[in-house]
Amino acid sequence: MALLSTTDFPHTIKKNDSFSHGRIDLHSHTHCSDGSLSPQSLIDRAVNYQISVLAITDHDTIAGFDIAQEYILEKNIPIKLLSGIEISTAWQGFEIHIVGLNVDVKHNALQQLIVNQQQAREERAISIGEKLAKCGFPNAYNDAKKLAAKGSITRAHFAKVLFQQGHVGTMQKAFDQYLGKKGRNTQRAYVKPNWCTIEQAIEAMHAAGGSAVMAHPIRYDLTAKWLRRLIVHFKEYMGDGLEVVLPQMNPQQRQIMLNYCLEYNLHASMGSDFHHPNKWSDLGRNLTLPDGAKPIWALWN
Fold first, then answer.
1. How far apart are CA 125 and CA 127, in angstroms?
2. pLDDT tens digit sequence for 186-232
3. What is residue 3's predicted lDDT score, i.e. its pLDDT?
4. CA dihedral over 52, 204, 58, 62, signed as positive or negative
């Protein structure tokens, strides 16, 4: 069966759509980037976990959206799918992820940004493969490309290759020893990415009619001073919200993120950042916005 065009169904949330009932998860991944589940399997899992609103936010691609939406329509599945994407950006030597929500996936500005990001990903992957070859893993690039298939190639694919082939004990050790910025191995395979800027990502998301959310601010290993600088920069370029809630955040961390939202008049989002089924984090788990937060979906009503 041919995929439906996005003109065959709404890509955005309508003004009267309700977010007041059920569980909401606005950050998830499929095998179109570095997740392990197909878009169809992700939808099935979301239904099993009683998710009422789900955003698929694959890295630098919207390939999974049409597939998931067609599956929902074909099976008449009771879930609201929100169009989304997670764009990798560069800021002050850090890689910062910006999630676009409720975007027009066919908008020219977003499509061009995706083309540029995919080119940057491919160039980086080739360089990582060359460095890993010097570390004694000559086929890492080809193996990672096979794992990625038609999806966005990421460092996670290289980590999985090293793990599956027994070169490291865990995927995390692949990052610790070879792929990470602070890898311990003297023959590291870290390659600095050539991502777009935060402002370019926000501009494309807004042009596509969507909202720009800073993903998982607590994960960037920034001091309080530098995190504030990042949020100020994000706000200066009209960013819309922060991810205030992730499954493994403690109450103090959620309060800190809420305080930033209140101080800088930003909306709040929440998501599991789901990649793989595991016992620590899953779709919709422990996702509730704190009192006083302005939900990101208020921008769509």
1. 5
2. 568 999 899 999 999 999 999 999 999 999 999 998 999 999 999 99
3. 30
4. positive
Tokens of 158: 């290289």
- The pair of structure tokens assigned to 176 is 């610790």
User: Hey, how many other C-beta atoms are within 10 angstroms of the C-beta on 48?
Assistant: 9
Q: State how many domains the chain has.
A: 2
pLDDT at 90 > cutoff 80 = yes
Residue 45 inside a domain? The answer is: yes
Closest CA to 56 of 25, 79, 87: 25
Task: Please state, as a whole number, how many other Cβ atoms lie within 10 Å of the Cβ of residue 119.
Answer: 11
Mean pLDDT over the full length of the chain = 90
DSSP 59: B
Q: Which residue has tokens 């403690």?
A: 250
Residues 171 and 255 in one domain: no
Residue 19 has pLDDT above 80, yes or no: no
Comparing CA positions, the residue from 253, 214, 205 lying closest to residue 233 is 214
